[in-house]
Amino acid sequence: MESSDAMLARFLALHPKTIDLSLGRIERLLARIGEPQRRLPPVIHVAGTNGKGSTIAFMRAVLEAAGLVVHVYTSPHLVRFHERIRLGRPGGGQFVAEERLVAALERCEQANGGAPITVFEITTAAAMLLFAETPADVLLLEVGLGGRLDATNVVEAPQACVVTPVSLDHADYLGDSVTRIAAEKAGIFKRGAPAVIAPQEPETTAVLEAAAERVGARSILVGGQDFHVHEERGRLVYQDEQGLLDLPLPRLPGRHQLVNAGTALAALRAAGYGRLPADAFEAGMTRAEWPARMQRLRQGGLVDLSPAGAELWLDGGHNPDGGRALAAAFAELEERYPAPLVMVVGMLGTKDADGFLKPFVGLAQELVAVPIPSQLAARPAEEVADIARSVGLKARTSDSVEAALVGLREMKWERPPRILVTGSLYLAGDVLAANGTIPQ
């Protein structure tokens, strides 16, 4: 049997561009394979710049704790492509098995007949096949890029649509302002499907609300007039017209996860899952997992290379809003458990490195810039270091994450450092693989 990796590599030749936002190609392919998008379980569709994955993780944890069978589609993957497609089953879903993935890809390749199509489009079609042919109660569907012209936007009647915080990212494809990007993401809104809108800048909220009104979707504003979420006495308190939930704080660290958890709760209630057992909502807060988002690595090959007693953290953040949320989370951690913060950073050339790094000025003691060998679009380490110095961070370079950790281990520390590897989801995937931490 041919491997899925070999097939995915071959699919790269089907289109000259990696990204070419359009619905025509995937609609053509879906028609040839029997319109699986019309046979999906009830869908909650999620777009946004930051927090999509965490919001989905909270929803999945709640739904599975209630005994529901949940499919999940997310991107990009960190270590293996199979992470993008989680097939639900009683007791908890699993990433798609190699044999089933290959079979679905083969069916799509044969039906496509060599016609132009991007890798994301043909693999999304394969995912639709798998989701349609595997019974489940819910499908949590994450947008790949944007929304309006994203390949996932073939779903005609979702139970609810969600837009998490929007910020400036992928400007070459979505527009050069946050409001333009928001308009693209609002393209997933559908008539009759509640539009759950996470906290945004006022002008962004206005764009999203107007888009929802145009298509006949009821807007539900997180933290606005529709519901509130906040921390009170070490608990998460959520309140809307359906009542109040007094829940444990999210397992995922960082104050920004309160917003993501609240958005998840609002989406579930809007989609008709508000009457799930109270213990399911409680379990969802404490069981949710989302790798490479403020993830503490406690054992593995890279942990062994780190200075004795050091903390090793991983986060795939890479845009200015992500940098602000991450810096705030580590500032809070510093207040509670002081330790010198050292950043190990690799970034793509398409990302706003200046905006991502600025929030760490005065917080990080040092930054070690590293390359991302697997990515041709990665910034050279010296360029990342130069940008870090330009915003006021002490910076140097190293040949790799491994070399950076060894170098830190050879230094003398009054207190074991807190090490944060960040700047790219691609770097995060490389780190998880090198550490032997494979997402489950």
Automatic annotation (TrEMBL):
GO terms for biological process: folic acid biosynthetic process; tetrahydrofolate biosynthetic process. Residues 46-267 form the Mur ligase central domain. PROSITE patterns: FOLYLPOLYGLU_SYNT_2 (PS01012). Keywords: ATP-binding, Folate biosynthesis, Ligase, Magnesium, Metal-binding, Nucleotide-binding. Coiled coil: none annotated. Transmembrane segments: none annotated. It catalyses: 10-formyltetrahydrofolyl-(gamma-L-Glu)(n) + L-glutamate + ATP = 10-formyltetrahydrofolyl-(gamma-L-Glu)(n+1) + ADP + phosphate + H(+); (6R)-5,10-methylenetetrahydrofolyl-(gamma-L-Glu)(n) + L-glutamate + ATP = (6R)-5,10-methylenetetrahydrofolyl-(gamma-L-Glu)(n+1) + ADP + phosphate + H(+); 7,8-dihydropteroate + L-glutamate + ATP = 7,8-dihydrofolate + ADP + phosphate + H(+); (6S)-5,6,7,8-tetrahydrofolyl-(gamma-L-Glu)(n) + L-glutamate + ATP = (6S)-5,6,7,8-tetrahydrofolyl-(gamma-L-Glu)(n+1) + ADP + phosphate + H(+). One of its GO terms (molecular function) is tetrahydrofolylpolyglutamate synthase activity. One of its GO terms (cellular component) is cytoplasm. This is Dihydrofolate synthase/folylpolyglutamate synthase. It comes from Chelatococcus composti.
